[in-house]
Amino acid sequence: MKIATIGLGYIGLPTAVMFAKHGQEVIGFDTNKDVIASLQSGRIHIEEPGLQEAFQDVLDNGLLRPVSRLEAANVFIIAVPTPHTEDHSCDTRYIRQAVKDVIPLLELGNTIILESTVAPKTTTGVIQPMLEESGFTVGVDVHLVHCPERVLPGQIMTELVNNNRIIGGVTPECTVAGSVVYRTFVKGEMLLTDASTAELSKLMENTFRDTNIALANELVKLSAELGINALDVIEMANKHPRVNIHTPGPGVGGHCLAVDPYFITTAAPEQTPLIQTTREINSTMPKYIADSVDVITNNTAKKVVILGAAYKGNVDDIRESPALKIAEHLQQRGVEVHVYDPHVTHYAMNPENAFADADMAIIATEHDEFKQLPSNLLTSMASMRVFDTKNIFEGQHDGLSYITLGTLHLYTSRSRLHA
User: Fold this and answer.
1) Counting C-beta atoms within 10 Å of the first and last residue's C-beta, which end of the chain has fewer, N or C?
2) Which family does the record claim for this protein (predicted)?
3) Which residue numbers are catalytic?
């Protein structure tokens, strides 16, 4: 089986590698020439444990070829970005372009698989009409399937194999064709359904998490107001066998939690008030963190170092990062902000310069490197304050003020919060 993967980003590249690793002939296509050049030279352009080694193996044995021109194949997997528009609806332009690229190469019996996360009815409402306008009957001439990715950055190589896989065909025949493709390496259960159900299932997985994080973040604000440690409340409540309050934080990022719920709300705004409120709570958390900095420092902070630019620990993905939004809010208030992240090339600056004379360090990403901070960095600060929004810091130092989302009430009061 020859598989063409279109889009070699955080999902497309590991997927291409995994198919090749399990004996399939794979071509990887991307419109970014720099990405193709890097891959052809043997260097991956994203950070993911185990991916570089696996990629090198399949590149060396010829099972995976990065190409700048799409070729005919038995299976076409579309894994391109789906950003949101100004009104937060799903932008399908990259998907539509990918389908346009595929159509001239299609042969009878081919399977087209959409892995990109999309709004409900995109597979049947956008892709299927394009194929049928080109003369193909979906389910007869070609198979069209939506198979959303369900992996966690940092564990993609393991979860691609072991996680259950949703296979959503436009017709039952399409569903079967999709399951045959993924059975080449997936050990998890094949969850067979239709395309629209698959689309909404993926969106609701991330919306569930977004909503639960919003509940935890609202608890943080409530507890700070009432003088209670929110993290203690969560720990106690989660001792109940049927309660699992999620971990609060500075907001959510990445394509999934920060974007996917909007694809639901824009599709049916009148039916989704809870999801809209969830998005409002989580999207305003970076401002709440900046407001808290003002309160904690009594509006005296002149320089702040933000630890982490990535939206998630131990990865280099900065898409929709709340850390960068915190930086924007502080900069708008005239604060000098330095963002340091050893995983992100653009922010891998000299940490000594970032910490020197800072009034506060904000841990905004749970990188392992931030669990401990060297004494020389802390002592170089104008005020030794660490505001840990991820509750990961394990270090100690005389004179250090350590603040978490649980202990905000010790540094704030009703009068100051409402000043």
Assistant:
1) C
2) Belongs to the UDP-glucose/GDP-mannose dehydrogenase family.
3) 202, 256
